Amino acid sequence: MIDGATVAPEDYHSYRLEFPGRTGYNYAVSHNPNHRWVYTEGMKPDEAYIFVCYDSRKDGRVRFTPHTGFKDLNSKPDAAPRESVELRSYCFWQ
User: Fold this and answer.
1) DSSP character string of 10-67
2) Structure confidence at residue 29 as a pLDDT band (50, 70, 90)
3) Is the pTM of this model over 0.90?
């Protein structure tokens, strides 16, 4: 994932996602040498990353955390397949 504090607003590019019955939007991110990438090798099943996927506030805090999956070319050929679980939680304050 990229440290969201290192992504400039102009690095984000919105694109449409067409679904049956609705249209959604997401962001792609342009390369910027100022991005600070974070990767943890050898995470165990009882370890997790928690990060902001979206925050509607536009007050200077990180609003998105760009993240992706990739093929680990350093994996052993007989290694067990990697697994990922994504859980989203929504919090609202009034």
Assistant:
1) GGEEEEEEEETTEEEEEEEE---TT--B---TT--TT------S-----SSS------
2) very high
3) no
